[in-house]
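User: Sequence recovery, please. Input:
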């Protein structure tokens, strides 16, 4: 499969995808290198947009899940999702943001192209590397 293919029945080609295997899990996440290439400039732009800390950015990860054998999540594309940033530079979604996000998720659930929401991303400008309670809330919803 090449990086531009969105055929859910094709296995990812090693040269066009990064793969990640969480320890002690029967799961592989394949991340299209073009997704990384596209996310990098967006994150950098957010970091440079405000002095000192920068602005966190985020959005939806799009692809499909292959449940045959070992569970595989294939991340083929992404869709940036602009937050209002009503609480400052952190990627913390307001009630209005959550409503818009729900609409985008519903759109992708009914997308005939075969891509659906398989996750979300956000940059992280705070000290340490972790998921915070707001991240877990988005995942639960």
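Assistant: Recovered sequence (141 residues):
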């Amino acid at each position: 499969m090449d990086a531009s293919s969105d055929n859910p029945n094709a296995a990812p080609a090693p040269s066009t995808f990064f793969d990640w295997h969480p320890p002690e899990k029967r799961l592989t996440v394949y991340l299209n290198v073009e997704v990384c290439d596209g996310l990098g400039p967006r994150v950098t732009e957010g970091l440079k947009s405000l002095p000192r800390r920068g602005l966190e950015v985020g959005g939806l990860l799009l692809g499909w899940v292959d449940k045959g054998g070992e569970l595989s999540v294939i991340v083929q594309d992404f869709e940036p999702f602009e937050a209002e940033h009503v609480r400052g530079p952190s990627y913390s979604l307001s009630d209005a943001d959550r409503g818009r996000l729900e609409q985008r998720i519903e759109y992708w659930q009914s997308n005939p192209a075969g891509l659906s929401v398989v996750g979300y991303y956000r940059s992280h400008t705070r000290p340490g590397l972790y998921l915070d309670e707001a991240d877990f809330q988005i995942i639960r919803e």
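Residues 1-6 have pLDDT under 50 and may be disordered.
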